[in-house]
Amino acid sequence: MEIAKAMLALYCQRTHRSPHLLLTNYGLLKLLPAAYLRKPVPWVLPTCMRTSTRTSTRTMKKNLPTIHPPMFNSNHNILSSFSSSFQNVHKNRKYTHALLESASSSCDILFIQEAHFGFIHNTISTASESGDPILGPVHHVAWECLHKQTVYENSLICVYINKCILHNFTLHTDPHMIPHEDILTFTLTCIIDNSSALLVCIYNRPSSNNSAIHHLIDNLHINSFNPSIIQGDLNLHSSEWDPTVDTSPDLCVQLLNTLTLKHLLLINDDGQPTWHHNTHTSRVLDLIFAHGSLLQDERFAYQNNIDDRGPGNHSLLNLFLGSHPYHYKQAFIAKGSNNEFNFTRDLANAIINILGSKDLHDAQHKANDFSSHMNESWIDNSRSPTNKGNPNPWWNRDCQSAKEIFEFDRSEAN
Questions:
Q1: Distance between CA atoms of 149 and 167, rounded to whole angstroms?
Q2: Which one of 163, 180, 332, 372 has the largest count of C-beta atoms within 10 Å of its C-beta?
Q3: CA 170 to CA 172: how far, in whole Å?
């Protein structure tokens, strides 16, 4: 009996549990619930945080509790000030890098379908002298990339997280939450209060018998599966979101009903096409669904960028939630500059002009003009912040125009 007590005390010490003081008979230990016996899902720390946490992890290793699958406190509203962009890039490596560069100062999350996964380098191999090839997505220093290509070789989706938000949020992804190669789920967790939001990126391949859609619907029936945002190239034709289609297949109706029960609402319901073609009918294939709590009082803005879509035929979609000052940069006048002197002079002259009025009517008239006069002075003397991204993207409207002319007439002259 003494040996059993000692073993139990040792076990409780290692697992940071204290034995009950009134416990006298130690029988066989009860098995833990099956959910806690699964293989632990590791936290995916962004690369910018790995070096900063390495030292503290080593010093506190002895005091760390047993790691189980993380439990999250769901809160959709932690995304209420986020900016997200979405696009199918048709495996274009160069355009993907240009998109990452241009969006690095204005976007928090970037969803990509038909992502490019290219050769990085060869690793040591026992079967080949040249080594085994390592493939990976497009890399950019300002972004952390999440993908499933290491688990599913044929995966065509990835999500880029702007490292600027990783000071306040941590990332967690489980590639097996939805066991499908083209559905990526990830969780953003606020460091302050441990509240989290689940996001889903999906690509429904045209020749897959809607496999990704069926997997998504199956998981939406699970009570604990409560996404905040679902976006993807669904490749579904329905009159519910595309005015050029006359009918709505049963699968589309089933998907909408399931999403509605989760309080997920369609953002791009304006009927504007997201897939464009010069000869065929343009379609609405890319859809964005967001939780209703994020759309209250219309505190969001949606953009369908057709002209800035690059060489592909899918629009670049943007979703701005809330009114975060990071996305709407205010103009300013530099301190000590000539513009500051000119603006101050205009302000002084306007005030002197009002004080020199002959009568009350004249003063009222000049006071009414004061606002418009100072607004013109502000526009003349202030300037807007510059973006950190490349101001001259390699794909511009001239490139888009040349591409469309060539598609219409594939001649050597074009």
A1: 26
A2: 180
A3: 7
**Do 91 and 230 share a domain, yes or no?**
yes
CB contact at 8 A, 195 and 232: no
Same domain, 201 and 343: no
| SS3 state at 145 | strand
DSSP letter (8 states) at residue 326? T
pTM above 0.85, yes or no: no
Number of compact structural domains in the chain: 3
Q: Please report the beta strands in 138-270, taking only residues with DSSP state E, as ranges in sequence order.
A: 143-147, 157-162, 169-173, 183-190, 195-203, 227-233, 264-266
Tokens matching residue 181: 């190669």
HSE-CB for 79 with a 13 A CA cutoff = 30
Query: Does residue 66 contact residue 15 with C-beta atoms inside 8 Å?
Result: yes
Alpha carbons within 13 A on the beta-carbon side of 205: 14
Q: Look up the domain containing 99 and give its range.
A: 73-321
